[in-house]
């Protein structure tokens, strides 16, 4: 099993959205028996909570399923994860600092790095939490734009993994 974990700050907005969208891409590609997708936050403020209602509304309006409980990312998870996807540069820095080894730190990548149309200076998926609903819609657009490139990378890794 190839394991991917999306990580944002509180695990109630961006990372559960990315988890739902990417899980749908994985399933549509027929990889759902080979790829496990989940998410977590760098902090534990919302542990046990569901996704933000605005995240749920935007996902449901776009036809994505979600069933989410927030949790905090633990450094011990690096052992079982193949790819850790950070939603912004702050998460990237925090996760790489948590990584027990250089090999683990290399597993951490920015989501938007998989979007070929993303400008080099715009690496973050902005946090929509303190803003209006359209911030959540923008978040979904950015996640959707990066998902095909991420799927290509995961598909190639799974082939290598199972070869």
From TrEMBL:
InterPro entries cross-referenced by the UniProt entry: LMW_PTPase (IPR050438), Ptyr_pPase (IPR023485), Ptyr_pPase_sf (IPR036196), Tyr_phospatase_low_mol_wt (IPR017867)
Top-rank taxon, per record: Bacteria
Keyword annotations of the record: Hydrolase, Protein phosphatase
EC identifiers of the protein: 3.1.3.48
CDD domains: LMWPTP
Gene3D superfamilies for the chain: 3.40.50.2300
Keyword Plastid: no
Residue ranges of domain Phosphotyrosine protein phosphatase I in the record: 2-153
Keyword Acyltransferase belongs to the record: no
PANTHER family, A to Z: LOW MOLECULAR WEIGHT PHOSPHOTYROSINE PROTEIN PHOSPHATASE, LOW MOLECULAR WEIGHT PROTEIN TYROSINE PHOSPHATASE
Family to which the UniProt record says this protein belongs: Belongs to the low molecular weight phosphotyrosine protein phosphatase family.
Protein name (Swiss-Prot/TrEMBL): protein-tyrosine-phosphatase
Protein's organism: Streptomyces spororaveus
Gene symbol of the encoding locus: ptpA
């Amino acid at each position: 099993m190839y394991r991917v974990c999306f990580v944002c700050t509180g695990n109630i907005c961006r990372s559960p959205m990315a988890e739902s969208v990417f899980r749908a891409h994985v399933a549509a590609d027929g990889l759902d028996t080979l790829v496990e997708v989940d998410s977590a936050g760098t902090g534990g403020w919302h542990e046990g909570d569901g996704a933000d209602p605005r995240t749920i509304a935007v996902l449901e309006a776009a036809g994505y399923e979600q069933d989410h409980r927030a949790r905090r990312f633990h450094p011990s998870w690096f052992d079982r994860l193949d790819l850790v996807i950070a939603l912004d540069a702050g998460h990237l820095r925090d996760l790489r600092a948590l990584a027990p080894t250089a090999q683990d730190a290399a597993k951490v990548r920015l989501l938007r790095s998989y979007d070929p149309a993303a400008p080099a200076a715009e690496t973050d998926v902005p946090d929509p939490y303190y803003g209006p609903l359209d911030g959540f819609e923008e978040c979904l657009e950015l996640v959707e734009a990066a998902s095909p490139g991420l799927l290509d990378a995961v598909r190639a890794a799974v082939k290598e993994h199972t070869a």
